[in-house]
């Protein structure tokens, strides 16, 4: 949920700044991706806890949420760059660069 919220906020900021027009379809896609990432992260933490490999602390949960939010922000940046440049596809290399920023 936090990741989806961060993604929506990033897209809204882009739209306010006039850097690009963000369609409803793009917002829905971005929110769905962020929700999927957050769900996957939560599932991984739950599996880890079930297997007793270690205890999942609130700190670890917070870190996982922060990581998901950062990934969402990187995706939003990649989408913005893609739209500005008029390209159809964001390469893995561009995604890595966006995540590194």
TrEMBL record:
Signal peptide: none annotated. Coiled coil: none annotated. Residues 1-26, 80-101 are annotated as: Disordered. Residues 1-12 have a biased composition (Low complexity). Residues 14-26, 82-101 have a biased composition (Basic and acidic residues). This is NADH dehydrogenase. The lineage of its organism: Bacteria, Bacillati, Bacillota, Bacilli, Bacillales.
């Amino acid at each position: 949920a936090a990741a989806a919220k961060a993604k929506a906020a990033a897209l809204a900021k882009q739209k306010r700044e006039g850097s690009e027009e963000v369609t409803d379809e793009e917002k829905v896609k971005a929110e769905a991706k962020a929700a999927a990432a957050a769900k996957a992260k939560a599932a991984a933490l739950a599996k880890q806890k079930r297997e007793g490999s270690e205890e999942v602390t609130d700190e670890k949960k917070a870190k996982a949420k922060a990581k998901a939010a950062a990934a969402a922000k990187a995706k939003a940046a990649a989408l913005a760059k893609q739209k500005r440049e008029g390209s159809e596809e964001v390469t893995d290399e561009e995604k890595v660069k966006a995540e590194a920023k």
